[in-house]
Write a structure and sequence with these properties.
Elements lengths: L4 E6 L5 E4 L1 H11 L4 E6 L5 E7 L3 H14 L13 H10 L2 E7 L2 E2 L5 E7 L5 E10 L1
The structure holds zinc ion (ZN).
Length: 134
């Protein structure tokens, strides 16, 4: 069974979706697993994982912009750290995704990519990848 692999992800602004597909693909290759699933997990409370269109970078910008509209920076939150919007966005998007692996390849659709979602950057982040065989 392959070990957990850790990706270092650095965000350079408060809110950004970062395409990590190539790194996840490399982790799958390094695991040696040809049939199974890749479990991609964000161990942060103000970051998330999503699968979305990677061909047009405007899609990621639209998602970020829409989430900001849905969850304002200041809405009378109680949390004293002042980043409740980021916590709410992280919960809406979710902390993980699973992608099937077939023949050593991630079964992503033609336009799909895997994104780390930063909601309270800039920060140095980790994304964990567990490749499961079966
Ligand atoms: Zn907080």
């Amino acid at each position: 069974m392959a070990q957990i692999q850790t990706l270092a992800v650095k965000s350079d602004c408060r809110e950004v979706l970062i395409n990590i597909t190539r790194s996840v693909t490399n982790a799958v290759t390094a695991s040696g697993v040809t049939d199974g699933v890749a479990y991609v997990y964000c161990p942060h409370t103000t970051g998330a994982i999503t699968i979305q269109e990677a061909a047009d970078p405007d899609v990621a910008l639209d998602i970020s912009h829409t989430l900001t509209g849905l969850v304002p920076l200041d809405a009378g939150y109680r949390h004293a750290e002042g980043n409740s919007d980021a916590h709410v966005k992280a919960s809406l998007v979710g902390s993980s995704d699973m992608i099937p692996i077939d023949g050593g390849r991630l079964c992503l659709g033609t336009w799909q990519g895997i994104f780390f979602c930063e909601f309270d950057g800039p920060r140095n982040r980790k994304v964990l990848i567990k490749v499961l065989e079966g």
